[in-house]
Amino acid sequence: MAKTAGVALVTGASRGIGPFIARSLAEAGYSLVLTGRSASELEVLADDLRAKGTTAVALPRDLTVAEDVEALVRTAEREVGRVDVLVNNAGGDPQREFDDMTWAENDAIFQLNLIAPMRLTHLLLPGMLERGRGHIVNISSIAGRVGFPYTEAYAAAKDGLMGFTRVLRNDYRSRGVSASVVVLGAIRDAGQGQRTADQLGMKMPAMGTSPAKDVGKAVVAAIEKDRAEIVVMPGPGRLIKALMDLFPSMGPAMNQATGANATMRSVIEFRRRSPG
Ligand SMILES: NC(=O)c1ccc[n+]([C@@H]2O[C@H](COP(=O)([O-])OP(=O)(O)OC[C@H]3O[C@@H](n4cnc5c(N)ncnc54)[C@H](OP(=O)(O)O)[C@@H]3O)[C@@H](O)[C@H]2O)c1
């Protein structure tokens, strides 16, 4: 029999880290609404979750289109029920230089990584407040804190997501709706970093990276323990993040020392030759 922790809507569930988050939430007893643009990938995941006894529906939508986001919420609530947990995981970066991208391309990064999570939250929050129950988990990145190369718009959006989460949590927690940010370092086994390494024929090192399954666990912990922030990085992640703020030259020095600058230069050149 299906367990009933509530209904969770997971964005970016079609590939990468999203399916790991969906599976962890299913194991924690949530019914799932899975979204992304790729219908067939979403259906495969939904089928697999249903086979294991979880209620799951796939609702393919483009989160950068306002009407799609509104339709997503209406259809999710009609087909599965009121959404208790929103995981804003969809995101990513085209790995190109700021000045080489048009303004529209930079804007698209913002729409996906910051505006869509805020819009979805804005649509779901009234229902959560009415029921006095809800949790929003935003998936952010350490990119801005470490000054990761060629991520100007992406880093700004992801840092914006941290600020948004912090104020949202402060404003609504006393009314039963909480918010957490899960800040990711480099993730292996799935997702954009692993895909890029595979495309370039590079090995994703185990040292300095975290497995994608850890992100699923972090999302469940953020909800169940109502944590303001979880940093998914090897070692003392939150301390490392705090040190980056205290010593702003530390991240760029690390990027140089670890070879991240040189690697990202290769990635930028690769994207110039074969965008996508
Ligand atoms: N991988 C890492 O090392 C890493 C590090 C730090 C932070 N993060 C963050 O973790 C999250 C997941 O990243 P990932 O590595 O799993 O990325 P990914 O493999 O590229 O997957 C991105 C997901 O977002 C969806 N998406 C992209 N554009 C969309 C749009 N316009 N409308 C709706 N859905 C869209 C994609 O689905 P469709 O293509 O089907 O639309 C896909 O499911 C992101 O927020 C990312 O910034 C990742």
**Rg calculated over all Cα atoms:** 18 Å
Largest sheet: 7 strands, parallel
The helix content, as a percent range, equals 40-55%
Bound molecules: NADP nicotinamide-adenine-dinucleotide phosphate
Give the CA-CA distance, first to last residue: 42 Å
* SS elements, strand count: 9
Stated plainly, the CATH topology is called: Rossmann fold
Tally of distinct domains: 1
Secondary-structure element order, as H and E? EHEHEHEHEHHEEHEHEHHH
Overall CATH architecture:
3-Layer(aba) Sandwich
Percent of residues in β-strands: 5-15%
SS class:
alpha/beta
Question: How would you characterize the overall build of this protein?
Answer:
The protein is of the alpha/beta class. The chain has a single domain (6-273), classed as Rossmann fold (3-Layer(aba) Sandwich). Helices cover 53% and strands 15% of the residues. It has helices spanning 18-27, 39-51, 66-79, 103-131, 143-146, 152-172, 192-199, 212-224, 237-246, 250-258, 260-273, and strands at 6-10, 30-34, 56-58, 85-88, 134-141, 177-184, 187-188, 210-211, 229-232. Strands 3-2-1-4-5-6-9 form a seven-stranded parallel sheet, with helices on both faces. The chain has a two-stranded parallel ribbon with strand order 7-8. Strand 4, helix 4 (103-131) and strand 5 (134-141) form a beta-alpha-beta unit. Helix 1 packs across helix 8 (212-224) and helix 4 runs parallel beside helix 6. The mean pLDDT is 96.
